[in-house]
Amino acid sequence: MGLFDWLSGRRAADSPETAAAIDMLIKTIDPRLAAISGISARLAPAVEGALDFCRRVAGEIPGPLDASSTHWRDDPLLCALFTRYDDLQQTFSRQDEIRDYLDEHPAATRFYALLGAAFEEKKSFGVTLENEALRPDTAVTSLNFTRHRLFLPSVEPEAFAHEVTWALFQHLALETLYHLAQIKEDAAGRREEIAFLRAQLAYHAQQEESGKTPPPATKDEKTPPETQESLTRQLEASEAALKSAGEPLQDLEHTLEWILLRLADPAQLLNLQTLNYRINNVNQAVGDDQPGADLRFCHFSVHAPTPRQGILLRVVFPVAELLPRRPFAEQVAQLLL
């Protein structure tokens, strides 16, 4: 906190978690931001609000669901993700991150984790049941779940809730960086466009001074050439767009203001929504009046570091039901297949 920042009513981060979140945010987006006087005090309210948002989202992710052999069939969501318990057990047992964590906690009898899977709605035609009659060639929507993966193992529910919250906030920082990088990339494209339009205007002016008619803008001789008036309008529009979109690129102060504006609405950065379906026993979506099970899951769509989408849920699993580790030679052989 700057020596005289108290005069402006700004305060430094009140908690170690907020201070750590501010530090991580700065290092992720642009370490040069640390040079701004009173940066922690200015970021603290927005960061605390974003952390509160992440806590709410973490609590809204379905679970923790009991994925043990005796209870996994009690939850339709787990049944939709895994057709057999053997598949679930294999997924949970072959995660190196989980096994390494449990090696460090040998007394653990169960662990919590975040389960993610790629999700796809597949449209096709099939046979459906309507009014106790089979109808062929009916449009159906099947839910496909693939690439199952466990994250953030923890033996304590409180610690697990904190880890999920922190992971969500870390992704907020990555999404902020992604959007800032997009602005820089778009700005570079705008600058090239502006330079090209200026060159065209200069060429038109030179041709007019010499009394010549500018050639067509394309190889198609039937295409009329761009007029100075239309080029000027395009140039003005491009310059205005660059000025509007490129404000955070002007200096660190503008970048900070842009970050604060984004953190004020974290839902735009972290696209998570609750989806509800009613499905039959083969994962086909059915109407509310048809036999089936109701699903509620958290669907995510993110950009950083690459565009991805899928679902998230919280699970708890007994350590005793994990399969033994595969011998190292078998793991190597599997990788070479």
Overview features:
single chain; 9 helices; alpha+beta; disordered N terminus; 337 residues
Descriptive notes:
With 337 residues, the protein is an alpha+beta fold. It has nine helices and six strands. The protein has helices spanning 16-29, 39-60, 76-81, 85-93, 96-103, 157-209, 228-245, 252-263, 328-336; strands at 65-66, 110-130, 133-154, 271-279, 293-302, 308-318. Strands 1, 2, 3, 4, 5 and 6 form a six-stranded mixed β-sheet that branches. Helix 1 (16-29) packs across helix 2. The longest helix is centred in the middle third of the chain and has 53 residues, at 157-209. The radius of gyration is 28 Å and the shape is extended. The model is unreliable at 1-10 (pLDDT under 50).
Largest sheet: 6 strands, mixed
Q: What percent strand? A: 15-25%
Radius of gyration based on Cα positions: 28 Å
Write down the overall geometry: extended
Q: What number is the mean pLDDT?
A: 82
Low-confidence stretches: 1-10
Total helical elements: 9
Secondary structure: number of strands: 6
- Helix/sheet category: alpha+beta
Question: N- to C-terminal separation?
Answer: 56 Å
H-E order: HHEHHHEEHHHEEEH
Percentage of residues in helical conformation:
40-55%
